Amino acid sequence: MKALIYHGPGRRIWEDVADPVVLDPEDAVVRVDAVTICGTDLHILKGDVPEVEAGRVLGHEAVGTVLEVGSGVRTVSPGDRVLVSCISACGRCGYCRAAAYGQCTGGGGWILGHLVDGTQAEKVRTPFADNSLHRLPPEVSDEAALLLADIMPTSYEVGVRNGRVGPGQTVAIVGAGPIGLAAIVTARLFSPASVVVVDLAPSRLEAAKRMGADVTLNASGPVEEDVRGATEGGLGVDVAIEAVGIPGTFELCTRLIRPGGRVANIGVHGRPATLHLEDLWPANATITTGLVDTSSTPMLLGMLAAHRLDVSGMVTHRFGLDEMQEAYDVFSRPEETGALKVALFRT
To answer: What InterPro entries does the entry give (predicted)?
Structure first.
């Protein structure tokens, strides 16, 4: 089969590799029908995730059809159409029992495209299939379901839920890439009074407006002044969600919150950021970080099937699976291409 192989920082090749096979009774082999590229994949290619070894198949999000299952798999069968979650869960360790699947100590967590071969391929082996695959209802399209493999549960759990967004609150989202846009959609489920989005790219700020942002601000301007000016008493926002993953955006978020406010960091950071505790501790600030658990995926999938979650407009570019290299080129240059989320389909 063909797969996208990581060959060290800056090097990726769409090449022939051996087909995956069932190695454990809890495995399934899935034919990839739709797949996408994540900002985390770009971090890997920059060398920000040193655990990823040369020779690894990249990718951790997909929709596909089950081809084969191990003898221990009970909840999916060959022929089933499934969502491949970005997180694998053994289901038995203490973290899994607490629904903290991202911290699984039984061999799961974020392993696809990280510690084991991933989804940017014609087929993928999925460990712990019973706990890590989700059967899809017929009314949910491959493209819509693809957004629930990572960015929607990540924005909801790590951004909105960790940030404790609530009715009538003010929310600032720094970064209007796919994760930031998904944070707008999931934050609005809780009826905030105002959602302010900050980004450098005019095209992404336009996308933020379409997704429901009340105020959009270009990061080249006086962002702190403008955000505070949009809040009661000029105190700052209740919640600031970091959706970029660079020191400057994290540090900006800590300056945007009011006393007693919360910073929810979603972005994947490859470099240290400065934590100004001398300013934050007397302000009763709360900072949360986290890897997604995907415990919310069944709920979000149910909302999608019931037309209570709108993910339309998130995918801007579509490709065939064998156009993987072109898709990466487009996705990695959003300021030129206007790309948000890209989707690749089996042809």
So the answer is: ADH-like_C, ADH-like_N, ADH_Zn_CS, ER, GroES-like_sf, NAD(P)-bd_dom_sf
